Amino acid sequence: MTTKSEYSLLLLLALARKSNEFPVDLETLCEETGAPLKYAEHLFSALKSHNVVKSKRGPKGGYLFARTPASISVAEIIRLMDGALAPTEAVSKYFYTETPIYKEKKLLKVFQDIRDYISNTLEGLTIEDLK
Fold first, then answer.
1. At what angle do helices 37-49 and 74-82 cross, to 10 degrees?
2. Is 59 in the same domain as 86?
3. 90-98 long-range contacts, CB within 8 A, separation 24+
4. End-to-end CA distance of the chain
């Protein structure tokens, strides 16, 4: 996981802890999480383009969830920001690429088990669960 995923998750959790009736400005979320504002703007641009958050302009503007926090899995955010959850692309379900270990079936099985554990854990965990 990179800081893109880490800060995205922290910012989304901070947003989830606020009422979703009123937009929350990014500066407030950054103060609560320690995320740099320019970095958060970049992250929220990606989150907005993937229908995770939406923005409202104006003096009382800010961000709201585009979908319910209960419908946004941790796995979705990590994949959006970092790509595959799998430890190697040779076992990735969504980002498969043949790598040098693909011929070693026993080794491949170990990485598939790791992928499955990570995926099952993070797919079943939502922003709502963590707020």
1. 110
2. no
3. 91/115, 93/119
4. 20
Cα separation, 46 vs 125, in Å, equals 21
pLDDT digits (tens, 9 = 90+) for 47-71: 999 999 999 998 889 999 999 999 9
CB atoms within 10 A of CB 124: 11
Angle ∠(6,8,10) on CA atoms, nearest 5: 70
**Same domain for 76 and 60:** no
pLDDT for 41 = 97
pTM of the full structure: 0.89
Q: How far apart are CA 119 and CA 104, in angstroms?
A: 22
Domain extent, residue 57, equals: 3-65
Q: How far apart, in whole angstroms, are the C-alpha atoms of residue 29 and residue 24?
A: 7
Task: State whether 45 and 93 are in the same domain.
Answer: no
pLDDT for 19 beyond 80: no
Q: Is 36 in the same domain as 61?
A: yes
State how far the Cα of 30 lies from the Cα of 83, in Å rounded to an integer: 24
Residues 127 and 70: their CA atoms lie apart, in Å, by 6
**Structural domains counted in the chain:** 2
